[in-house]
Specification:
alpha/beta, single chain, 23% strand
């Protein structure tokens, strides 16, 4: 009888220890991302792809943790997932307001914001110009200040917002050259279909670029594993290649746009 009770106690102790193991905790990591061409995209089967998606997948493998990827609308990510632990958010703009609210792992892209219009579109006479943007965008405060809230139209994602410009439902869109090019391509257009108006100055609200960010409260084992993986030579090489490829692509696009 004593031996049987002791055996049961050992089993319970083993289960408790196993439940607290780093491996099991690492299983709780969820990678959430929106459809944001050309950085990461979601196909018709709700599967993720694209350069940032692939980099995040490689990072997780080198961190030797288990995680699942889940594409979601940006509004859901920023309003819900951002407040839950053990979430890795792809391609989030790092702003002064957001800085203390997340654990910023590494930047994947930097770019200058510009104001765009559809080429050859005629602006309305004696009317305020309207602008489209993604719901819950980090640019909402600066765009509201520049265009005024009543002239700002919000959409589910940035691709839909740019499509509103191409359909002439609005007259302006704000974005980087590289991001606009990628979204136009996903919609069946090119940079030749739009006109770059001027630099958009976000002032003190300006983004420091796109980052991979963890939510606060994420398990320390997950944080340590990802930070350690970021120091691996292969991951450093992959990140630098990702970052530089984006910069070179944007330089080429800017050169074409200035002709």
């Amino acid at each position: 009888m004593v031996n049987s009770s002791w055996y049961r106690m050992l089993i319970i102790l083993f289960l408790v220890l196993f439940s607290l193991s780093p491996t099991l905790q690492a299983n709780a990591l969820e990678v959430v991302f929106e459809h944001n061409p050309p950085f990461q995209m979601i196909d018709g089967g709700q599967n993720g792809y694209g350069p940032v998606f692939e980099f995040a997948n490689k990072l997780i493998k080198y961190a030797d943790i288990q995680a699942h990827f889940n594409g979601k609308p940006w509004a859901r990510i920023i309003r819900k997932e951002a407040f839950l632990p053990n979430k890795l958010i792809l391609s989030m703009s790092k702003t002064p307001q957001r800085t203390p609210k997340f654990i910023w792992l590494i930047s994947v892209y930097e770019g200058q914001q510009y104001i765009w219009k559809k080429k050859n579109a005629i602006d309305p006479h004696n009317k305020k110009l309207t602008v489209s943007l993604e719901r819950d965008s980090h640019k909402i405060k600066s765009i509201n200040a520049y265009f005024k809230p009543e002239n700002v139209f919000k959409f589910l994602n940035s691709a839909q917002a740019l499509d509103a410009l191409m359909q002439e439902r609005v007259q302006r869109f704000v974005g980087t050259t590289f991001a606009v090019s990628g979204k136009l391509a996903s919609l069946g257009y090119t940079l030749a279909d739009v006109e770059q108006m001027s630099v958009f100055d976000e002032g003190h609200l300006a983004s420091q670029g796109l980052y991979l960010a963890l939510t606060l409260g994420t398990d320390s084992q997950i944080i340590e594993a990802l930070e350690s993986a970021l120091q691996h030579p292969e991951i450093i090489k992959a990140r630098n290649s990702l970052f530089n490829n984006f910069l070179e692509a944007e330089k080429k696009l800017l050169a074409i746009q200035s002709r």
